């Protein structure tokens, strides 16, 4: 998907056998992770799977119990200062100050990066233009929309022009338009050679942006491949069924082996291997007195991959 640029180190992020426990709870059980320079790797997993813990270790915010990791060629245990100089981090919670203007926020971050007052003003102006915030530069960040605040937060993480960027669920809570705008910014950063590790709860986001997807569950890596290869791995088409009566949804899910319930869409989905499987499925629902108002065959999506992998590893 994206050209991997030649650098002094081939892999911008390399982790082997990372472990981490909090008390008696083991959060990471020996994960391996490789992010080639110039690529975007999406890290997916259900809540509590360990993905945020992995990011905290790789950004030196948390020490691992075991294993090794290098970021930008620097060991996260022994060379924390060098790692932090090489990275930018956009966390789930915005770090900008609501009482400062957009420009003042960026100048503050530039000052923390020791750029000097003249260079700080210049860099703030560059980033305001790049992230389409120039028109709102003089407004307090507290008046920004959710999408504008996330763009400002991302701009702040890019003040020092780091070669490696960690994005921890950057679009959570954004409306579809704001999410699409941020995707465009991320693609631009990737196109300029920035290496990105993205954690996200939106499977569509990973499908659109990632060169590779790493799925972790229970503190272990359960899949690591391109989005297209993972979807081929699922193989079978997906059958989506919507019962006439919403109350029948749980019963339909319990009746059909391997089914996944989507309460929001009011659907049951499952893999179908052949036309005869489809016929038997519909006959089973009919025999159980569950009328269906909508039937659709779909090609596999990353959502299907995610549900299958995390269910198999649970």
UniProtKB/TrEMBL annotation:
Topology of this chain in the membrane? Peripheral membrane protein
Q: Which GO terms describe its molecular function?
A: ATP binding
SMART domains with a match to the protein in the record: AAA
Record localization: Cell membrane
Domain ABC transporter, by residue range, is 13-243
**Which UniProt keywords are present, listed alphabetically?**
Antibiotic resistance, ATP-binding, Cell membrane, Membrane, Nucleotide-binding, Translocase, Transport
Assigned protein family: Belongs to the ABC transporter superfamily. Drug exporter-1 (DrugE1) (TC 3.A.1.105) family.
Please identify the protein, giving its name as recorded: ATP-binding cassette domain-containing protein
The organism named in the record is Nonomuraea insulae
